[in-house]
Design brief:
mainly alpha; two-stranded antiparallel sheet; 14 helices; 2 strands; 56% helix
């Protein structure tokens, strides 16, 4: 009888061997996956990208760069800036700089995004005052000036202008002397004396005929020539455009005005009012440039500042054509002509 073959034992042993081999294969795959996930590879530049033919060995030999090392190289730079404030730059002005700029103006860049005009940082307030002054001018000052022209002959208006201009010569002489121009101060005093005596209290102007120049100086110009060049723009109610420097100068020299020495209130107030009306009459010629302007406030501010800088910088030179005629010094009144017809000024292109 042939021997019996143990098929059951053979099948069991084969099945057990197959299971052991599967477990061994699964364990090796799991070990390879774990090692691959624990080894970070950081590519820092496009040149470090491996070619398409790079194999596993090439990837394994790629140098590893950690984020901690990159941050460590940048840390000393920030630490040095903190340790040495002189090398760090800051655009925030100090309190002392703000206080200085409030009086003398600022050199800030007006073209920077969101930056205010350094010469006109109080623009919102100034615009409100400008709107108020325009209302006073429209309903009070301009009608009075036009009525004054309608009822007063040109020779009389010229004489009144000469009278008020001559009253300002003593103050001009004082300021010329403070600016270091004794010759000009003597000419102003001589002009006042000649016109007051031979010109019938200043209604006529014989001083010009004998060669005494007519130059007007005020304390605001004196402060500018003493070094207060820049000053913030300021528009005051009823008084109109000024700067902080000029407002201070007006307050200092106001008690020196000959009109302020008149004790009779009615006479003093009448003469001061007549002087303002005469001044507004001389400005009627400039109204045509304002009518229809795109921004009346900016036009008035820029024209006034341009003329003021001309008075400060070029009053003692022969550069008489540096400004248009309507911005040049109007110390010599010219109220003998009727105001021009109002014509709209050209608007800037959009």
């Amino acid at each position: 009888m042939p021997p019996r073959i143990p098929y059951a034992r053979i099948a069991t042993a084969w099945l057990l061997a197959a299971m052991l081999g599967a477990c061994a294969s699964a364990g090796g795959a799991r070990s390879t996956t774990t090692d691959a996930t624990q080894t970070p590879v950081v590519v820092s530049a496009p040149d470090a990208v491996a070619p398409a033919t790079t194999g596993i060995a090439d990837v394994a030999s790629t140098p590893v760069v950690s984020n901690d090392a990159a941050n460590a190289t940048a840390a000393p730079t920030a630490a040095n800036d903190e340790a040495n404030p002189a090398t760090a730059t800051s655009d925030t002005p100090t309190q002392s700089e703000d206080d200085y700029a409030a009086i003398y103006g600022s050199d800030a860049d007006p073209t920077a995004p969101g930056a205010r005009n350094p010469i006109d940082p109080w623009e919102p307030f100034n615009r409100h005052v400008h709107h108020f002054n325009n209302g006073v001018d429209r309903y009070i000052a301009k009608p009075l000036a036009r009525g004054y022209i309608a009822i007063t002959p040109p020779p009389v208006r010229l004489g009144i202008g000469n009278f008020f201009n001559n009253l300002g010569q003593p103050v001009s002489a004082i300021n010329a002397l403070l600016q270091g121009h004794p010759k000009q101060a003597g000419q102003s005093l001589a002009r006042f004396t000649v016109n007051f005596t031979f010109g019938v209290l200043g209604f006529f102007d014989p001083a010009t005929r004998i060669g005494l120049p007519n130059r007007s100086e005020d304390f605001g110009q004196t402060l500018a020539r003493w070094g207060w060049k820049r000053s913030r723009y300021l528009e005051l109610p009823f008084l109109g455009p000024r700067t902080v420097r000029d407002a201070f100068g007006n307050a200092v020299e106001a008690p020196l005005s000959p009109l302020s020495q008149i004790e009779e209130d009615r006479v003093r107030v009448f003469l001061q009012g007549l002087q303002l009306v005469d001044l507004r009459t001389n400005l009627l010629a400039a109204d045509s440039f304002r009518n229809g302007a795109y921004d009346d406030y900016s036009l008035t501010r820029d024209a006034w500042l341009q003329r003021r800088n001309y008075q400060i910088d070029n009053d003692n030179s022969d550069n008489g054509n540096a400004l248009p005629s309507y911005l040049q010094d109007d110390a010599t009144p010219d109220s003998t002509t009727n105001p021009p017809q109002d014509t709209p000024a050209p608007q800037p292109a959009h």
